[in-house]
Amino acid sequence: QVQLVESGGGLVQAGGSLRLSCAASGRTFSSDAMGWFRQASGKEREFVAAISRNGGNTAYADSVKGRFTISRDNAKNMVYLQMNNLDPEDTAVYYCAAHTDFIFPGKIWVTSAEYHYWGQGTQVTVSS
Questions:
Q1: Which letter, b or e, does each residue of 54-67 get, where b requires 16 or more Cβ atoms within 10 Å of its Cβ?
Q2: In the predicted model, is pLDDT for residue 82 greater than 90?
Q3: Straight-line distance from the first to the last Cα atom of the chain, in angstroms, rounded to the nearest whole number
Q4: Chain centroid offset of residue 56 CA
C-alpha cells in the first residue's frame, strides 16, 4: 500500500505561483511512477503532469505545458508540482497519484485509470 498526502494548495491571484507537494509513504517510493491530476467543479478529472519513477521522463497536458513543472525527490519520498503564471482556468482540486511499476524505470502514464493509489487532493483557487 502507498499513502499519498498533498499539500501546498491555496488561493492565489492570476499570474501567481504555487508549489504543490505530495508526500508518499508505505513502501519504496522509487517503485512508483507519479502523476498529478486535477478536477474542476462540475468537470471530469484530467491529467496535468507525470514523471517516471527514475525522474528521467516527464509529460504535461497541453494546457499547462511551459507553466507547470513536475519533479521528484526519491530520497525524500516526495513529488512536486511547480505552477507558474496561474490562470483562473487552473482552479481545481489537485490530486497526486502513484502507478506501481517494477519493470520500466523510464515509463510514464497519463490516464487516471492507470494509477493505483491516490491522495485526498488539495484545492487550488486562482482569482482573476
A1: ebeeebbbeebeee
A2: yes
A3: 40
A4: 16
What is the pLDDT averaged over residues 100-116?
A: 91
Number of Cβ within a 10 Å radius of residue 75 = 8
How far is residue 46 from each of residues 12, 74, 97, measured CA to CA in Å? 21, 25, 12
E-strand ranges in the chain read 3-7, 10-13, 18-25, 32-39, 46-51, 58-60, 68-73, 78-83, 92-100, 117-118, 122-127
- 112 alpha carbon, distance to own chain's centre: 11
Cell of 80: 512536486
Residues 6 or more apart whose CB falls under 8 angstroms from that of 42 comprise none
Query: How do residues 1-45 score in pLDDT, each as one tens digit?
Result: 889 999 999 999 999 999 999 999 987 777 899 999 999 999 999
Q: What is the mean pLDDT of the chain?
A: 95
Distance CA 29, CA 76 (A): 9
CB 95 within 8 A of CB 37: yes
